Amino acid sequence: MDNLRLLLILALAYTGFLLWQAWERDYGPQAQTAAVEERKSAGTSAEETVPKVPAGGSVEGAAAAPAAKTESEAPAERFVEVTTDTLRVRIDLRGGTLAEAWLQKFPVSVEKPDVKYRLLSRDPNDFFIVQSGLLAGDGEAPTHEALYRSAKSRYRMAEGAASLDVDLVWNGPKGVKVTKRYTFTRGSHLVKVRHIVENGSGQAWQGREYHQLQRGEPKKKKHSFMYTYTGGVAWDPEEKYQKFKFKDLAAGELDKDVTGGWIAMIQHYFLGAVIPPKSEPRHFYGKGLANGHYVIGEYSKSKRIEPGGKHIFDASLYLGPKDQDTLAKIAEGLDLVVDYGWLTILAKPIYHILAWIHKMVGNWGWTIIIFTVLIKAVFFKLSETSYRSMAKMRNLTPRIQALKDRYGDDKQRMQQAMMEIYKKEKINPLGGCLPILIQMPFFIALYWVLMESVELRQAPWILWIKDLSVQDPYYVLPVIMGVTMFVQQKLNPAPPDPMQEKMMMALPFVFTVMFAFFPAGLVLYWTVNNMLSIAQQWVITRRIEAQAKKL
């Protein structure tokens, strides 16, 4: 395959994507941002953060949450810390909110193995929390603004224990008791959350449960060469997987009744998700808050509990990596958060082939190399057709140069003469393009697989490559890739247009600089692919030249 042409096409497509992103930043969400800024001075009220429910009858016209209590009214120990083998979580006793969560098996970097990745955070630069609560018609229910009590301030999963329960208790003034129970399971990032309602009052209690993921829009990173989606997603049996950007949530575009779905906030490699019971009807919603944060949430149908009765509201939270096999077992469609875009139909099989190879060799660097060889083998005949066409055109270079000398600036007559030569020699000047176009979707799909797979995060290869998901620290691979592009270019026929020839000469340098910021795994793939292409093209070119000498 002529990688130079493919890379040029990809570069043009990527440039267009960057231009579109810039247009969106400049002209797309400005109206929403202005509206948010206009409300910021008022702050975020408790009423605003509580999900709105339909009006009409009892809990359907639920009272707003009570105003947030001041810090001086809160207990001295506001947070409960929970430690398991997979998670370390800080739970805010105000609302029982999951305020911070660290992933125990995922360091922030290879250089800092003891510093764990923080998924949930109250840091204004990367705000992300999980809230839940109850709504009742008479206000006798703990929202995410209510104060809970805990028997202990620290919980740790015991050695050999399969699970750990953490109970938070709220007692209402009229005799209603609510226990919010978080259940953590060994070896899992799935957390069960239950609201156990015991009606000790003298009248019937009626209310509903809700969960919501609230986050701020993270600040842009220094390098925007690698785009990954951060925002809300939802899945339901009717419309399947749907994305809701922050501006979509603020506009209230998510507002529907669902049975058997889930909601999530996703980012590169990780996610937080709410998975309600599959058989229970829920209402999904989205909103924007005055403080610039965004919410995606769900609430249940209203439940009636008679005096002396008890009811358990049940749901699950997932706080962890985008592990496709694990997510597929938790809920239907949850593995789609590993977002391959419109090429999912190709990317999924590619991922499974890569995973199979990795089981055999145990190293993601060698896995990428072996897969690249397999891809070249599959498309060998198509590539051979392309290289033969280019090799024949290369042999015509002296004759093309003679035509340039003869016709000078008369491009029309020169083009006619070139077409006559192509016809006589039975050469299709576009013969190298079709194989490239056929292969392009597969290579773009592979690009997204390497970009989205959490398995490559902090995966080493050899020597100085300690993490295939980040750029080469010494830029060795990008330089090698640039050299292979230059060599490959020399094997191709020179363009008849001098300006085009100069542009092609500059391409290896341009792409070397651009790929210097790409993850090492992607650069490794392109480098190996270039090397295989050079070997294949060199052999075919020599054969064609040898045949031409015999004529």
Q: What's this model, at a glance?
A:
It is built from 14 helices and 20 strands.
Strands, helices and their partners?
Blueprint: H1 3-27, H2 30-40, H3 46-49, E1 79-83, E2 87-92, E3 97-109, E4 112-120, E5 128-136, E6 149-150, E7 154-156, E8 163-171, E9 176-185, E10 190-199, E11 205-216, E12 231-236, E13 240-244, H4 246-250, E14 255-259, E15 262-266, E16 270-275, E17 281-288, E18 293-300, E19 303-305, E20 310-321, H5 324-330, H6 344-361, H7 364-378, H8 380-395, H9 397-407, H10 411-425, H11 433-452, H12 476-491, H13 498-515, H14 520-550
Parallel strand pairs: 1-7
Antiparallel strand pairs: 1-2, 2-3, 3-4, 5-11, 6-8, 8-9, 9-10, 10-20, 11-18, 11-19, 12-13, 12-15, 14-17, 15-16, 16-20, 17-18
If you had to describe this structure to a student in words, what would you say it looks like?
The strands form three sheets. A nine-stranded antiparallel sheet has the order 6-8-9-10-20-16-15-12-13. It has helices at residues 3-27, 30-40, 46-49, 246-250, 324-330, 344-361, 364-378, 380-395, 397-407, 411-425, 433-452, 476-491, 498-515, 520-550; strands at residues 79-83, 87-92, 97-109, 112-120, 128-136, 149-150, 154-156, 163-171, 176-185, 190-199, 205-216, 231-236, 240-244, 255-259, 262-266, 270-275, 281-288, 293-300, 303-305, 310-321. The chain folds into two domains: 42-336, Beta-galactosidase, Chain A, domain 5; 347-550, no CATH class. A hairpin with a 4-residue loop joins strand 8 (163-171) and strand 9 (176-185). With 551 residues, the chain is α+β, with helices and mostly antiparallel strands. Residues 14-43 and 55-76 have low confidence and may be disordered. The relative contact order is 0.11.
